[in-house]
Amino acid sequence: LSLSADPTAVVGSFLLAALLGGAGMRFLGLSGGEALGGSLLAVALHWGSDIAHHLGHARAARRTGYPMSGIRLGKWGVLGTSLYPADEPALPAAIHIRRALGGPAGSLVVTLAAAAVALALRAEGGALWWVAVFVFLDNLLLLTLGAFLPLGFTDGSTLLRWWGNR
After folding, report:
1. H helices of 29-125, where?
2. Could you tell me the CA-to-CA distances from 58 to 91, 92, 107 in Å, in that order?
3. Rounded to whole angstroms, what are the CA distances from 128 to 3, 52, 93, 112, 132?
4. In 3-state terms, what secondary structure has residue 88?
5. How far apart are CA 166 and CA 163, in angstroms?
6. What tens-digit pLDDT sequence spans the chain (166 residues)?
């Protein structure tokens, strides 16, 4: 798979880091250094989570016989998009549905792993616990459950479009 990034990925990353760093200092009482380090780690883990989501799509697509060609980060700010070959033939609805479900399935695995890490770090608290909670919520709410919202660019939109045609 090719991996590329849109300039909005950089802008989105800076905005997300600033938001998380500010929240860490204001609401969690983290020092400036802890908030900066934690927010940069959280942004890096967000992108890793987004790539894992798209690798879930890639795995499902490969299993259908119509694989992805790449992942483009930042197509939607701090979200990426799965790329498919431009010359791909018209596909049955069942193929589109299987490929769409692969992303949330991959994100669910990351959600469960992040939950285990957050629970393990709960007693320690601090920046690492905060990052683990962020990664858990990011994967659960945005990349797993949020992926099903029909927003025009999400897996939910793909499912809604193709579900009646299967």
Report:
1. 32-64, 93-121
2. 16, 17, 13
3. 28, 21, 43, 17, 6
4. coil
5. 6
6. 999 999 999 999 999 999 999 999 999 999 999 999 999 999 999 999 999 999 999 999 999 999 999 999 998 899 999 999 999 999 999 999 999 999 999 999 999 999 999 999 999 888 999 999 999 999 999 999 999 999 999 999 999 999 987 6
Taking the chain, what is the end-to-end CA distance rounded to the nearest angstrom?
28
Residue that is written with structure tokens 């320690």 in the block:
124
| 8-state DSSP, 148 | G
CA dihedral 64→65→69→70, nearest 10 degrees, is: 30
Tokens of 84: 């498919």
Which residue in this structure is represented by tokens 């802890």?
34
The pTM of the full predicted model, rounded to 2 decimals, is 0.95
The helices-and-strands tally (H runs, E runs) of the chain is 5, 3
Going by C-beta distance under 8 Å and a sequence separation of 6 or more, which residues neighbour residue 34? 24, 126, 127
Starting at the earlier edge strand, list the strands of the sheet with 70-73: 2-5, 70-73, 81-83
